Amino acid sequence: MSRLFNYGDDVLLCEVGKERTYLVALEAGGRLHSSRGIVEHEDLVGSPPGSEVVTNIGARFLALRPRIGERMFKVRRRTQIVYPKDAGWLVIALDLRPGIRVLEMGTGSGAFTLLLGQFVGPEGRVYTFDRREEFLENAMYNVARAGMADRVEGRVLSAGEPFPVSDVDAAFLDLPEPWEAIEAARAALAPGAPLALIVPTAEQLKRAVETLEAEGFSRTEIVELFERRVLVRQREGVRPSERMVGFTAYLVGARAPA
Amino acid sequence: MSRLFNYGDDVLLCEVGKERTYLVALEAGGRLHSSRGIVEHEDLVGSPPGSEVVTNIGARFLALRPRIGERMFKVRRRTQIVYPKDAGWLVIALDLRPGIRVLEMGTGSGAFTLLLGQFVGPEGRVYTFDRREEFLENAMYNVARAGMADRVEGRVLSAGEPFPVSDVDAAFLDLPEPWEAIEAARAALAPGAPLALIVPTAEQLKRAVETLEAEGFSRTEIVELFERRVLVRQREGVRPSERMVGFTAYLVGARAPA
Amino acid sequence: MSRLFNYGDDVLLCEVGKERTYLVALEAGGRLHSSRGIVEHEDLVGSPPGSEVVTNIGARFLALRPRIGERMFKVRRRTQIVYPKDAGWLVIALDLRPGIRVLEMGTGSGAFTLLLGQFVGPEGRVYTFDRREEFLENAMYNVARAGMADRVEGRVLSAGEPFPVSDVDAAFLDLPEPWEAIEAARAALAPGAPLALIVPTAEQLKRAVETLEAEGFSRTEIVELFERRVLVRQREGVRPSERMVGFTAYLVGARAPA
Amino acid sequence: MSRLFNYGDDVLLCEVGKERTYLVALEAGGRLHSSRGIVEHEDLVGSPPGSEVVTNIGARFLALRPRIGERMFKVRRRTQIVYPKDAGWLVIALDLRPGIRVLEMGTGSGAFTLLLGQFVGPEGRVYTFDRREEFLENAMYNVARAGMADRVEGRVLSAGEPFPVSDVDAAFLDLPEPWEAIEAARAALAPGAPLALIVPTAEQLKRAVETLEAEGFSRTEIVELFERRVLVRQREGVRPSERMVGFTAYLVGARAPA
């Protein structure tokens, strides 16, 4: 595969020195209308990632292939998405790897579905379920947009219903009442396979953990992660950022029984 | 592949209700001598992950396939290892995925090498470098132990020397003076590809970030992560753990120039 | 002293169920024009703190005597103020108590001056210094407003000049370059007395700490504090707040030499 | 009062460059037997705070007057004490100042009682209550040891019983089940006066906050504080400490009704 941008590629355009970014799929005759001017898609074709492009009004944009963390933030959203700091912990907790089959309940906007798809790869399989058809349609649009339609299957299903899959290598639950899906997840998981879930309140956490124990799960671990950005400035020096996300969710990992 | 344990498999034995775990490779006639009694390997063969086994003195152990996070903690160590909370962030920052080729400078004990190996998979490639031959030998032992010898190449190399690879998809630096390897990493990276590094002090952070900028890297982000465990107890209820790791390292991500 | 509100008292008016508060000094014929209607001062006179008052358009306000933490947020500001979470740590580090004499360099808006004044009490003394006359004038306005003019003396002074006081019981430095004032603070402090300072960057921290050591200070301790609000909601339950202040300053405490 | 040490004074002896400290009351003929040698009390008399003294085996100790935060750690303990980082927040929340009358329920070892005594001063009054006579006796020993017997009254009382005081300026509850004492605290508090309490679990927090609301308290705020030490080392530079206290308690502040 060529390293240079071509039509059909996704490009992340980042205004130099600013936070603003755009995700565009290069197409013949395409143009990005940004708040800082116009970029013609054809100006990007043939240039390498990491190049700069200049808009018609002189603003500079950096052109990059989107990383998965950036793609997650660019999905068309219907719901809150799993925050990248939490996503990394979950990837480790779920023991993701190429070729495995994983289950997700609570597709939402599909941002985490993309992450699962990236780590199981084209040989793997993501089975994702949501109670609401419109969420699922939107998520599958995002999946197709990321080129992962081949490895992701979505289906409408309510929490508590049995999953139409079995012997899966990992399961992730992102639901208002995750305990409702734990028994069904146990039935779908391979013996000893990892399950992870996220919940926002202490009461939900308690109920989820008690249900995990009642269903025979073991090695339960619960964490919360704080991420603080650090600033390095030429004149002002090194200092932590004043802004910080204080809380997103409690993260829970466990192992299925035999 | 069978879901049941067989000779040759790695098994993580976890004493029920305790923190203590053992990683054993099942072999004919093998036995684990734990502080809580003996487990015969043959008692595990044929049973599914998630099963319990009882030692000769009546202690109960849970038998699981090790997850990558557990494997990282079980490497034979010569150096400090990358902490799992940080590992997850780095996996996302490096945009790991099946089949890619990644570079690591500062192999250390090889714990992060295993992580890289897991996410690039059997079709991918990890090129890992360390200045000290004895570290590299130990790390390659750990790599072979995890069944990843096919996808990992290790070589002795000092920080600052050119890397004998090019057009790699991602690079990770874990060095006392990471700025020494940034120019060489730039030369080895594909245009726009992600680089990540970790450093422990504010001064090192400043110097590393300044070198990244001087070498044309962009989209630099710096974070520190705090992980706090949460306890859910039947009688006492939900409360955060009193113990907490306050700091491991500053985590830095950036993108190579074109 | 009567517990009921009277003319001359300061009252904190807090809209019920909202964040918005107003600090008013009750005076004959006075009225508060809030965004939620008008409160006549005379309606408050004779009622106890903790009472509710209703505006002409029906909005409910709670009337309280301002606590010191609330007063600090209500000063007329010319500069950033010391954040209350940090103020508490500093009060302990400076070992404040009734009747002592304390020195402050970097008066700023005078919010921390009020705190010092509260804890040393009417028998104590606060000597506060700032390089800029206009800051000092504003701060002394805030001091008078809080009824502490009797115990606070303000004077224009540049960092590095000797302080016109000696044998003080504690010293606090809030300066862009606090190391410039450390030698003078040592000369003004009683033997073994506590000094505290705050700095925003790692480089400044290093320089300040090195100067403290060079000047013979001991028992240096450096901390940063994170404060996270927690929400308790009837239906949603207990969960940490998503918003959090990630950083304000490094807090440093030390003890003067003999 | 003389600035120099004299018999009867409390001295904090701190081994130079070490964490270990000793609190001693100077007395004629007294000697401290430390793990690093003997210090004769008479060697300290007449020297200023901040001086160094050398033991008979050559170890160096710094002699200081104890700050309140240091005194709190030196009480004879029967129970866990309020941690200094939390103490500072509580001092602000309770709006302590010279001359006021405050109530404490749950004396425990009396460490926080000392803090209250310091900030209300000799003109103020601390009424402290505990269900267990032996705790109270121990705490009153610590109070007398700190020279505050004149301003602290202790009495045995169970949570839920009415307090034998009224119109107090502030109340602090440190109890396993603080909601049991909230109604009685309301009856004892002056209108609009501040109350603070600490609780360790989410369930307790919820119940305490709901009881505060039911009893008419307002302006409830709940926080948790994290304190991280920072290290400044000549060669290694500036970096946060790896050790950190992850959690002590939820801190709650509120205002009594009229």
Output the strand order for the largest sheet of chain A. 9-8-7-10-11-15-12-13
Q: Give the topology string of chain A: H per helix, E per strand.
A: EEEEEEHHEHEHEEHEHEEEE
Tell me, what is the CATH class of the largest domain in chain A? Alpha Beta
Largest sheet of chain A: 8 strands, mixed
CATH architecture of the largest domain in chain A: 3-Layer(aba) Sandwich
Number of spatially distinct domains of chain A: 2
By DSSP, the count of extended strands of chain A is 15
Strand content of chain A: 25-35%
Provide the CATH superfamily of the largest domain in chain A.
Vaccinia Virus protein VP39
CATH topology of the largest domain in chain A: Rossmann fold
Key traits:
globular, homotetramer, 23% helix, 6 helices, 8-stranded mixed sheet, alpha/beta, Rossmann fold, 2 domains, Vcp-like ATPase, Chain A, domain 2, 258 residues
Kindly describe this structure.
Four copies of one chain form a homotetramer. Chain A has 258 residues and is an alpha/beta fold. Chain A has helices spanning 68-74, 84-93, 111-120, 133-145, 182-188, 202-214; strands spanning 10-15, 21-25, 31-34, 37-40, 51-54, 60-64, 101-105, 125-130, 152-156, 170-173, 194-199, 218-233, 237-240, 243-245, 250-255. The first copy, chain A, folds into two domains: 10-64, Vcp-like ATPase, Chain A, domain 2 (Roll), CATH 3.10.330.20; 69-255, Vaccinia Virus protein VP39 (Rossmann fold), CATH 3.40.50.150. Helices cover 23% and strands 32% of the residues of chain A. Chain A has an eight-stranded mixed β-sheet, with helices on both faces. Chain A has a four-stranded antiparallel β-sheet with strand order 2-1-6-5, covered by helices on one side. A two-stranded antiparallel ribbon of chain A has the order 3-4. In chain A, helix 1 (68-74) runs antiparallel to helix 3. Chain A is globular. At the A-B interface, strand 6, helix 2, helix 6, strand 12 and strand 13 of A face strand 6, helix 2, helix 6, strand 12 and strand 13 of B. Strand 14 (243-245) of chain B pairs antiparallel with strand 14 (243-245) of chain D, so a sheet runs across the interface.
